[in-house]
Design goal:
236 residues; alpha/beta; 4-stranded antiparallel sheet; 10 strands; binds adenosine-5'-triphosphate; ATP-binding
Length: 236
């Protein structure tokens, strides 16, 4: 269940003006990855390829050994990957609970129509009681991002991609959200790939991937690496 990037190259206008060239990376389950890099370095573009939202100029992205274009990008997006954005992207006219219930129904989840499942999912990210039945516009930004994660998790995809999920949040909410992603990776055994500008968030990841000078560099967080655990990511 590995997500693999092989020899990925991307440019928008001219091949000489590339964002990155021949990138090869491997993303494993049960691991939280942080992608860090300067503004404009191409992080969002890169994760849009991982999420099947766009395709690179060249290179191969495969999941479980299969080219995601052969899986079909729509199918891949529906069954294998779920995305959390910086700007929450909730249905503003709905309550927190309705947001999760609708995600279960739209994605034809096996839990579609199961209100208790939606309540439990929200509770698992700390949205409980009255908060769950409030219109999301009446919730704080941090609370809305918690709901957005519950909504994304409703899809139950093995890969979770998050583009600056804590970009608008204060320190406390940033810590809570990052801890949720740690849990999703370690307990739910998902592959979680998160873009961040925040060094503290990056330090909470199992693996840091720096995008600098058009090069990706992989760094395992020192306290997460032990002799019996091989590096979670390899790069050629
Ligand atoms: N569709 C496009 N056409 C042309 N250039 C683009 C397009 N999308 C992005 N770019 C350019 O590609 C570069 C990388 O953009 P991207 O949004 O991936 O960077 P980023 O690292 O995520 O930045 P930030 O941290 O500011 O969100 C930028 O210079 C951007 O202007």
């Amino acid at each position: 269940m590995t997500l693999t990037v092989q020899k990925l190259t991307h440019y928008f206008n001219h091949p000489d003006d590339y964002l990155y060239k021949n990138v090869s990376l491997k993303f494993n389950p049960s691991t939280l990855y942080a992608i860090v890099g300067e503004s404009g370095s191409g992080k969002t573009t890169f994760v849009s390829f991982l999420a099947g939202l766009d395709s690179p100029a060249s290179g191969l992205i495969s999941y479980n050994g299969k080219d995601i274009r052969k899986i079909g990008l729509t199918k891949y997006r529906n069954q294998d990957v779920t995305v959390v954005f910086q700007a929450y992207n909730l249905m503003n006219y709905m309550t927190a609970l309705e947001n999760v219930v609708s995600a279960l129904s739209i994605t034809k989840s096996k839990h579609a129509g199961n209100r208790q499942y939606a309540i439990d999912l929200l509770a698992s990210v700390g949205i409980e009681g009255e908060l769950a039945t409030k219109n999301v516009q009446k919730l704080s930004g941090g609370q809305q991002q918690h709901v957005a994660i519950a909504r994304a998790l409703a899809v139950d995809a093995p890969i979770v991609v998050a583009d600056e999920p804590t970009g608008n949040l204060d320190e406390q909410n940033t810590k809570e959200i990052t801890e949720i992603f740690q849990r999703v990776a370690h307990q739910s055994k998902k592959t979680v790939i998160m873009i961040t500008h925040d060094q503290k968030v990056a330090d909470m990841a199992d693996v840091k991937i720096m995008l600098e000078n058009r090069q990706f560099t992989v760094k395992n967080s020192p306290d997460k690496v032990s002799d019996d655990k091989p590096s979670a990511v390899s790069i050629n």
